[in-house]
Design goal:
Order of helices and strands of chain B: HEEEEEEEEHEHEHEHE
Radius of gyration of chain B: 33 Å
CATH class of the largest domain in chain B: Alpha Beta
Mean pLDDT of chain B: 87
Number of domains of chain B: 2
Shape of chain A: globular
CATH class of the largest domain in chain A: Mainly Beta
Largest sheet of chain B: 5 strands, mixed
Strand content of chain B: 25-35%
Oligomer: heterodimer
Low-confidence stretches of chain B: none
Distance between the termini of chain B: 64 Å
Largest interface: A-B, 49 and 30 residues
Helix content of chain A: 10-25%
Largest sheet of chain A: 6 strands, mixed
Strand order of the largest sheet of chain B: 2-8-7-4-5
Strand content of chain A: 35-45%
CATH superfamily of the largest domain in chain B: OmpA-like domain
Low-confidence stretches of chain A: 1-24
Number of helices of chain A: 6
Structural class of chain A: alpha+beta
CATH architecture of the largest domain in chain B: 2-Layer Sandwich
CATH topology of the largest domain in chain B: 60s Ribosomal Protein L30, Chain: A
CATH superfamily of the largest domain in chain A: TolB, C-terminal domain
Structural class of chain B: alpha+beta
Chain lengths: 449, 243
């Protein structure tokens, strides 16, 4: 129900003019859609279940996990039209010689490409063979053929499906890598206090990372995935802390005076920006080297927080400032010069810069005041034109958007179910999915790759 | 002779014996087996091993037979040195990996607080002091999204300042927000609220070294109901006596 309403409203906005929509002309909508790599036509892909290669008792259950994961990964990618299974012909190819291309390329399935293959468990290993074929062109050429062999566990069946899906997406999706192997880091209360957790991009494999034992906030994984920065409450102050994913423990990071929070990485892994009250007792934006050394103050305002680098150039930083009263989004050059205010009203927080450098996602209560209950929605702004699209509409508090590495998805926190949980959505508002259910979960951060 | 050399001689001897015993016609001796990989050695020292807060120490390390050396996760040269200025006692870890395995070495730098001229010692706070503090240094409350002190708060703080000075107390000011705003911005707003109270105490003559501030944002609410009564209770500075 939620999903239909979002799509209906979004489609209404996309199809009508400024007068009805409120902020946005059709041309600007198209512009933002193109920037999200979602303006082009979507290939029609058929994804029949892979065939069981043998009668080993482990084959069928792993095949089920594999097929579900592969379907979801291709469906979630946001660049395909998956042919409805009700249109599939009765054949199920497990090998290229079994493929009847015409049955798939003709109506009713009318597929452009098909992925198919087989999976079998042998001696505790799962073997998968997968193909991607063009069924529209004469001769039905092969686009991809892959083989995988891993330990026969549900986890590895998922991993193989993720890898294969990413291969297909990279081949057919304008050269942008798939996200099926990416991770999301977030804050969860389910262990008793706020700690940093991680999960696969589709919500699988949720596990605790930090064991701070007090309050851990604002996780930010490094571009190479080896270190997790976050803000942790010590006995007397907040400090930026660094967890080594390789070593499985926190590593030394310089302690600063005052409170230090909301870390952010430059996309080349060499710098960390963060908010600190070390200088004036009020929070200001600082930038340091990746090991925490050489911290220098950037922002001249006070009440500054939540910095984020432009990941395409690392030449700019967006952040939140309360210098005029309610928080607004600002952008400056990475040396602190050329400060520009981006939002003009309401309560605007949590900027997130798209991987292609063209868009800012943020959380906004457009009309904010003491009488108004604190509902906020996720918005996307085209930086060059300052045009804005509203992404969430269903009420409640939606906050902390974070972009996927392919620039097509956004993960965010929402309390629409009654308490804070993490949701993902395609940047055109479709494919809304709840990823967490246990405890209270917030501040998601999507990995760089 | 060392163990690896004596091992080598034994192996050679056994091979020679086998060749003779099997009637092998080859005239050349069998080549010796490849020597085992050399053991990885790692050393890390700190100089000095004890500093005052604000000073520096030099970490010096050396390794042997290592291809991959890291100091607390950062890749470093097989031998080198680095200046560090920890603000609290820290143990540094050097990890050296080589063909023979991995070695770790550690060094600790102890940090003692800066030596300062002894001030007039403040009387050790007693149970009575805690009660007095709670009575006389009360929470102050803020308007929605604001960090400026209301008139009643200014008055309350001016009075509290006199007692704080007289008793020589050290105070922690904790800034808090209601739960409606965003987590990170609320940490900043709480910081602002704590700083507002600090400025008022400074103006009333309390020394800067008697005041510590911290923001809890919306992380430590006093109540969780979704109504203005509860929200107002959470928009506050809370004061604690530091012992």
């Amino acid at each position: 129900m939620v999903k239909a309403k979002t799509i209906a409203v979004t489609k209404l906005c996309f199809m009508t003019l400024t007068v009805l929509c409120g902020f946005l002309s059709a041309a600007a909508q198209d512009r933002i859609k193109i920037e999200l790599n979602m303006g082009q036509e979507r290939p029609r892909i058929a994804v029949p279940d892979f065939k069981a290669a043998n009668a080993d008792p482990q084959t069928a259950p792993l095949n089920t996990v594999f097929n579900q994961t592969l379907w979801n990964d291709l469906d979630n990618a946001g660049i395909f039209d998956l042919v409805a299974k009700s249109f599939y012909p009765s054949q199920q190819p497990g090998q290229p010689q079994e493929l009847q291309a015409k049955a798939w390329g003709d109506p009713p399935p009318n597929a452009g490409v098909i992925t198919f293959g087989n999976l079998g468990v042998n001696n505790g290993k799962v073997d998968v063979q997968g193909w991607l074929y063009d069924v529209k062109n004469p001769g039905a050429p092969q686009i991809l053929g892959k083989q995988y062999k891993e330990d026969a566990t549900p986890d590895m069946a998922r991993v193989i499906a993720h890898r294969f899906a990413d291969e297909i997406i990279a081949r057919l999706g304008s050269g942008i890598a798939g996200i099926a192997e990416s991770q999301i880091y977030f804050v969860s209360t389910r262990s008793g206090n706020k700690e940093i957790w991680s999960m696969d991009y589709d919500g699988a494999n949720q596990k605790q990372v930090t064991k701070l034992g007090s309050i851990a906030l604002s996780p930010r994984i490094s571009p190479d995935g080896s270190r997790l920065a976050y803000s942790g409450l010590t006995r007397d102050s907040w400090q930026i802390m660094m967890y080594s994913m390789d070593l499985g423990r926190t590593v030394a990071f310089p302690r600063n005076a005052g409170d230090n929070f909301s870390p952010a990485w430059a996309s080349d892994g060499t710098k960390i920006a963060f908010a600190s009250s070390m200088h004036s007792g009020r929070s200001e934006i600082f930038v340091a080297d990746a090991n925490g050394g050489g911290a220098r103050r950037l922002s001249t305002g006070k009440g500054d927080v939540s910095p984020v680098f432009n990941p395409k150039t690392n030449g700019q930083i967006a952040w939140v400032s309360g210098r005029t009263g309610l928080p607004q989004i600002y952008v400056m050059d990475a040396d602190g010069s050329n400060v520009q205010r981006m939002t003009d009203q309401g309560y605007a927080v949590s900027p997130a810069w798209s991987p292609n450098g063209l868009l800012l996602a943020f959380a906004w209560v457009r009309n904010y005041g003491p009488g108004v209950l604190g509902g906020s929605d996720i918005y996307l702004m085209d930086i060059a034109s300052r045009q804005i699209i509203q992404l969430t509409h269903d009420g409640g508090r939606n906050d902390f958007p974070s972009w996927s590495p392919d620039g097509r998805h956004i993960v965010f926190q929402s309390n629409r179910t009654g308490n804070e949980q993490i949701w993902s959505v395609l940047a055109d508002g479709t494919h809304l999915q709840q990823l967490t259910r246990q405890g209270r979960n917030s501040q998601p951060n999507w990995s760089f790759k | 002779m060392n163990k690896s050399t004596s091992n080598r001689i034994v192996v050679l001897g056994v091979l020679a014996f086998l060749m003779v015993a099997s009637g092998c016609k080859k005239k050349e001796a069998a080549p010796p087996p490849p020597p085992p990989p050399k053991a990885v050695v790692a050393n890390l020292t700190a100089n000095p091993t004890s500093i005052e807060a604000g000073q520096s120490a030099t970490l010096t390390w050396s390794t042997e037979n290592a291809t991959d050396v890291a100091l607390d996760g950062n890749k470093v040269d097989p031998s080198g040195s680095q200046t560090v200025s920890p603000t609290q006692t820290t143990t540094y870890h050097l990890t050296a990996k080589g063909a023979a395995g991995t070695q770790e070495a550690t060094a600790q730098v102890s940090v003692t607080p800066k030596a300062t001229p002894t001030p007039t010692p403040a009387p050790t706070p007693t149970v009575t002091d805690d009660q007095l503090f709670a009575q006389m240094v009360k929470d102050v409350y803020f308007d929605y999204d604001k960090a400026d002190l209301r008139p009643d708060a200014q008055q309350s703080l001016a009075q509290a300042a006199q007692l704080i000075k007289q008793k020589g107390w050290k105070v922690q000011i904790e800034g808090n927000c209601d739960d409606r705003g965003s987590t990170e911005y609320n940490l900043s707003l709480g910081e602002h609220r704590a700083d507002s109270a600090k400025q008022a105490l400074l103006q009333a003559g309390v020394g800067a070294d008697a005041i510590k501030t911290i923001s809890y944002g919306k992380e430590k609410p006093q109540c969780t109901e979704q109504n203005e009564d509860c929200w107002q209770k959470n928009r506050r500075d809370h004061f604690t006596l530091l012992h």
